[in-house]
Amino acid sequence: MGRQRSILALILVLAIAAIVVLVKVPVRLGLDLQGGSQLTLQVQTTETVTEITPDKLDAVKRVVENRINGLGVSESIVQTVLPDKLVVQLPGVSDPAQAERVLGGTAQLDFREQIPGTEARLPIEFQVQKQKEDELKALQDSKADKAQIDAKKAEVDSSAKVLAELFKPSGLTGEGLRNAFPQPVGGDRWEVVLNFSDQGGEQFAQLTKNVAGTGRSLGIFLDNQLLSAPTVAAQYAETGISGGTATITGGFDTKEASGLAIQLRGGALPVPVEIVENRTVGATLGQDSIQSSIYAAVLGLALVLVFMVVYYRLPGLIADLALLLYSLFTLALFNMLGVTLTLPGIAGFILSIGMAVDANVLIFERTREELQAGKTLYRSVESGFYRAFSSILDSNVTSLISCLALFVLGTGLVKGFALTLALGIGVSMFTALTCSRTFLMLLVLSYPALRQKPELFSPNVPPSSKTQPNKIQPEKAS
Amino acid sequence: MKLQIIRQRSLWWTLSSAIILSGIVAMIISWSQLGAPLRPGLDFVGGTRLQIELDCAVPSNCAKPIDPALVREVLAAQGLEGSTIQVLGDEKQALSIRTSALSVDQRTQLEKTLTERIGAFDPQKTQIDTVGPTLGRQLFTSGLLALLLSFVGIGLYLSFRFQLDYAVFAIVALLHDVLVTVGIFSMLGLALGIEVDNLFIVALLTIVGFSVNDTVVIYDRIRETVQTSGDRSINDIVDAAVNQTLARSINTTLTVLLPLVAIFFLGGETLKYFALALIIGFLMGAYSSIFIASTLLAWWRVRSGQEIQDGGKDQLVGAEE
């Protein structure tokens, strides 16, 4: 009894915690519910790049992120899906045409030479550009309205154009760059090492020779955006930086250095990116889906609740309580783990409501059998739980095996379904075995009067299990 | 009510075979007509589906219903004659167009012409799905692979928890459920043009994971009875076990079907046929557990001379209280 009390206290604490979580942590809605565009990009292999390694995929991801930043979409997400895909989520975008145009295609990395006479303007314009980009980012993070973001984005674009006008092409492009990686120079100071191909090295030497000691910079552009504008020391004015290797120094920390290196590597990869999937849902449609799935969930839950009480009587009521706790815990768990709710995910959750009572049904059927076999109420309840356990375990494990298969091999939406269903199964084991059991036991133990009324638990109980005679019905073989 | 399942087994076996056979016939017809056993959706063959709705906030935009002939004309002008067009909604203000996979430029061009010819569309009510043909094939193979994987996983688990013959017949029952569901959807594809998509494979996997539950519960009971009263004939034991667990089998299926029915009617277009597939599969799951998996096990044990098994080889986890 004391044990049941402490479990009851634990359940109460969990329930309160779950409510707090539900109130405090917002639900994460998938793009099919909140509206938006999800694009799947496939990185194509070419004659020179015959294999997409995880490393290369990461580099392309940076290029794609770079392009998305130029789109002015708040809270966009880019994920890599091995071996060769990137999934881009653009919330709130109902016409992804612009994004599709910008995201497809091969990255354009090129090295340019600053035009004489612009020395004074470059640092100012570069500063302006960085500042505007930061402002745009801040606006996006604060979820400012679209007009404001668009206006700021236009400023960024025009500032990028101004910057681009300060440079002229040198002929050296990403093809000439073989590799780029960060290298420590002591403390948290890093530099970025560039490795060129033979031809690229020559072009780089020529370029650096042109600008060395002049105060002018060479400009490294990715998709027409200035990444870095290093100057070249006067000592190289004779020969340029030859040998095919150079370093960009400039007080980078780890993050900056590796960031720049990845962008350079991505830009140097001559791999085209193709959009192989586009799933776009308008915001209103998403709203409609949320609405209809809420109706379905509420109706589904209500039907199950009513059925349980009508068929299983008092234990049914307890199962209902456990089921409500189940819904509460599961939803709270979704929020806590940051599970993104998609339409199939909601279907998985609704389905799991029906499955969650399965364990209770097994237990109560067993309890009934024991009661009808003439056992006392307490013993019947105990052995109902005890004997049903093996069936409950087996049936849940088989469901989990399917979920696992779905999760491992499925794509986005399917994964969401598998995850919500699997979490639901886990929580339902807890609520059925712990919550229902504790409630039922407490009830049986605290109200001795109940023991005189096994008919609250099952029809057709033989009189031997009661102390008081009751009307005897003919035994119905169940 | 007491079911005489062993005595009536030839009836159930015939019934199941008949349903499965007609499903297979439907798949063959479907294969000859569509080149696939089921009508494949966008997810598997690739293509673009554009769902748009007129923006009624624009004055006189929604004055008349969308004319499919006009849409067909627009599509033909762009060389998209083979496309399917559906005018949707009570007021015929919404449009669903299914074409081969369109590039961004093709799609924007189509949207532009449609707007010129028909009226302004509400971007907030637009749905675009484009799946490249290669990706479609990948989705399909990974779906089939997942199905295979879960069959193997469940088979291994059951042979570990029970015995090999239990596991084999549980898998046979699962195949039965999957075949019936696939067969019925093949017929639906032929008769009503219902397509199967990614969610259909998800539904099949869910059916596999859930339907085996009923079988497991019945087998659990058979195993228990074999251990406690090993001197009874397996036919008796199976009959008794099925009847003892009958209420449970029916009730758990019912509690799962109730929310599914709610999804089918209220859950919206995307989930409708997903729910239907699950309803069919779960019903079949309960049916095959009660009538097929159990009778097959009894038949096999009698045939292989294990009709009366004295003392169980397999141990139940834990003993009586």
From TrEMBL, chain A:
A Pfam family annotated for this UniProt entry: SecD_SecF_C
Location of the Protein export membrane protein SecD/SecF C-terminal domain: 273-440
Family matches, as SUPFAM superfamilies: Multidrug efflux transporter AcrB transmembrane domain
Major subcellular site: membrane
Transmembrane segments: 294-314, 321-339, 345-364, 385-409, 421-445
Chain segments carrying region Disordered: 458-478
A GO cellular component entry from the record: plasma membrane
One GO process term, biological-process aspect: protein targeting
Annotated membrane topology: Multi-pass membrane protein
Record keywords, A-Z: Cell membrane, Membrane, Protein transport, Translocation, Transmembrane, Transmembrane helix, Transport
Location of the protein in the cell: Cell membrane
Gene Ontology molecular function: protein-transporting ATPase activity
Residue intervals of the SecDF P1 head subdomain domain: 168-271
Protein translocase subunit SecDF P1 domain location: 58-113
Family annotation (PANTHER family): PROTEIN TRANSLOCASE SUBUNIT SECD, PROTEIN-EXPORT MEMBRANE PROTEIN SEC
Quaternary structure annotation from Swiss-Prot or TrEMBL: Forms a complex with SecF. Part of the essential Sec protein translocation apparatus which comprises SecA, SecYEG and auxiliary proteins SecDF. Other proteins may also be involved.
Role, per record: Part of the Sec protein translocase complex. Interacts with the SecYEG preprotein conducting channel. SecDF uses the proton motive force (PMF) to complete protein translocation after the ATP-dependent function of SecA. Probably participates in protein translocation into and across both the cytoplasmic and thylakoid membranes in cyanobacterial cells.
Family: Belongs to the SecD/SecF family. SecD subfamily.
Protein name in UniProt: Protein translocase subunit SecD
Annotated organism of origin: Drouetiella hepatica Uher 2000/2452
UniProtKB/TrEMBL annotation, chain B:
An annotated GO BP: protein targeting
InterPro entries, A to Z: SecD/SecF_arch_bac, SecD/SecF_bac, SecD/SecF_CS, SecD_SecF_C, SecD_SecF_C_bact, SecF_bac
Residue ranges crossing the lipid bilayer per the database entry: 12-34, 139-160, 167-193, 199-219, 250-267, 273-300
Membrane topology listed for this record: Multi-pass membrane protein
Domain Protein export membrane protein SecD/SecF C-terminal: 115-301
Single GO cellular component term: plasma membrane
Keywords: Cell inner membrane, Cell membrane, Membrane, Protein transport, Translocation, Transmembrane, Transmembrane helix, Transport
Annotated GO MF terms: protein-transporting ATPase activity
Subcellular location: Cell membrane
Similarity comment: family membership: Belongs to the SecD/SecF family. SecF subfamily.
Role: Part of the Sec protein translocase complex. Interacts with the SecYEG preprotein conducting channel. SecDF uses the proton motive force (PMF) to complete protein translocation after the ATP-dependent function of SecA.
Assembly behavior: Forms a complex with SecD. Part of the essential Sec protein translocation apparatus which comprises SecA, SecYEG and auxiliary proteins SecDF. Other proteins may also be involved.
Protein name: Protein-export membrane protein SecF
Lineage of the organism: Bacteria, Bacillati, Cyanobacteriota, Cyanophyceae, Oculatellales
